[in-house]
Write a structure and sequence with these properties.
Layout lengths: L2 E4 L5 H7 L3 E3 L3 E4 L3 E2 L5 E9 L3 E10 L4 E5 L9 H17 L5 E4 L2 H9 L1
Antiparallel strand pairs: 1-7, 1-8, 2-3, 3-5, 4-5, 5-6, 6-7
């Protein structure tokens, strides 16, 4: 399962205030809102991807006292296309912009992170 783990807890309510919609045309990647659970430990971001196929799914950001993880919400299981994986990276970049001192502790999306920085 594609994921990006970060080295500390982030404040999801604070991040939600600065979240800006993601919209790219080719392939289509649309993430327009964020919903934070009232406990502040989980957030869901509805995503629409149109590349080889049309897919709608949820991106989950979950926090514990020591880390934060960005991943696909397990109850939605899209085909893991390049655009689906890139959508997780786009959320990471917004988090990194808002919390510049955060670092990746574990990921299986390194090639997407590197290619996103060069494009």
């Amino acid at each position: 399962m594609p994921h990006i783990s970060l080295d500390r807890k982030i404040d999801l309510f604070d991040f939600a205030k600065s979240f800006s919609s993601v919209f790219e045309k080719s392939p289509l990647i649309k993430i327009s809102t964020i919903y934070v659970e009232k406990n502040g430990f989980n957030a869901l971001l509805p995503a629409v991807i149109i590349d080889e196929k049309h897919q709608e799914f949820l991106i989950e950001i979950s926090t514990t006292l020591k880390k934060t993880t960005i991943r696909l919400f397990p109850m939605t299981d899209p085909v893991k296309t390049n655009a689906v994986k890139s959508s997780l990276v786009k959320i990471y970049h917004q988090i990194k912009k808002h919390f510049p001192d955060i670092s990746i502790s574990k990921t299986n999306l390194l090639e997407y992170l590197e290619s996103d920085l060069t494009s």
